[in-house]
């Protein structure tokens, strides 16, 4: 079994944002609003932003993944939706599950 020290979130943004700083500030503000000072101290890395700014991939500690997801998806501006999440970064490449 592969173990990972990271968790990856593939998120969709509406409206589109191409600035890493703006995205980081929006997620940080959502964490502060949702969890207060404790949530604001959660570290995250933005690994990828689509060319048009509609999607991002974020890396977080697995223990913080649920908090980041809860805060980010509760944000109304920008609206952030989960596309996919995984402990294994390459698995975010597949869009549709295979049955």
From TrEMBL:
Annotated Pfam families: Pop8 (PF20976)
UniProt keywords, alphabetically: tRNA processing
Domain Ribonucleases P/MRP subunit Pop8-like: 7-73
Keyword tRNA processing attributed: yes
Keyword Mitochondrion applies: no
PANTHER family, per database record: RIBONUCLEASES P/MRP PROTEIN SUBUNIT POP8, RIBONUCLEASES P_MRP PROTEIN SUBUNIT POP8
Name of the protein this chain belongs to: Ribonucleases P/MRP subunit Pop8-like domain-containing protein
Organism, scientific name: Lentinula boryana
